[in-house]
Amino acid sequence: MRVIRHLASQREKLTRVVLTLGNFDGVHLGHQAILRAAAARARELGGQAVVLTFEPHPMAVLAPEKAPLIIQPLHDRLAAIRELGVGVAVLQRFTHVFAALEPEAFVRDFLCRHLELRQVVVGYNVNFGRNRAGSGETLRTLGAALGFGVDVVGPVSVPDGTRAEQVSSTRLRELLREGDMPGARRLLGRPHALRGRVVMGDQRGRTLGFPTANLHVRPGVLLPPDGVYAVLAEVDGKSHPGVLNIGVRPTFAGRRRTIEAHLLDFDGDLYRRWLVVKLTVRLRGEMTFSGPEALRTAIAADVARARQELAHEPALRRGG
Fold this sequence. Notes:
Helix 5 packs across helix 6 (about 135-145) and helix 7 (about 170-180) packs antiparallel against helix 8. The protein is built from 11 helices and 14 strands. By secondary structure, it is an alpha/beta fold. It starts with a strand and ends with a helix. It has a 6-stranded parallel beta sheet with strand order 1-4-3-2-5-6, with helices on both faces. Strands 9-10-13-12-11-14 form a 6-stranded antiparallel β-barrel. The chain is elongated and about 75 Å long. It has 2 domains: about 1-155, Rossmann fold, CATH 3.40.50.620; about 190-315, Elongation Factor Tu (Ef-tu), domain 3, CATH 2.40.30.30.
């Protein structure tokens, strides 16, 4: 996938564009429906699917005190978008000047100046331009005058017991903050993942018989609540079961929050490597134990339960 930083930096106009735009943080099932629709429409029209996304998050510029923690770092967001068939991603620098564009100016003077628009594909709740005044209907009106079509993709819902739950980034953040990993998985269509580089820790886990990889996750990423999670960890294209601890390690009077993964049945050096862990279920909250022996017993129980929880994961059953 070609990545363009800031549309105005392009000297040549992109042609035969089927465009979609949004933050797409997390690339949940609602986002996936929009992105797949754009890719399908591009194939149908013989064009190229282009996504315009924003960096940083608009709220981080307009109201920093209200800006949400991000669900997914940019690298992972772009990788997820690429997998859905989008050929070009534009990372648009979001500024106060950019935010002040009226909806018509945003489309006529910005988008159409740099893109030969064939079609625009957006979600039903899209908003753009000054004071978020632009909508799907605005695009339809402008498209009729400027020569591009508009597809609006409706809301996506997933089963939740006896009811249907509408997929949204707001709801996804709520589930992640609650530590409801199966709930987050329903909205994502996949387990929620954390990605980080393995850094040197104090090696306390090794002394307990459970060596851990300490992950340095990008600041500003939304973390689920402190506790122990059953996870799948990807190493060299293979999935390994594991347990992940997020917290301050109160048994040892810790104060700094760490993210530590213990991979089951794995023997190898992960130091300085990038590691992706997929969180499947929260096993328990963080607890203070009387000492190392009590903690060792608790970790052994966590490992046993994690094996049970992960036994039916497709990635482990197919050995990859």
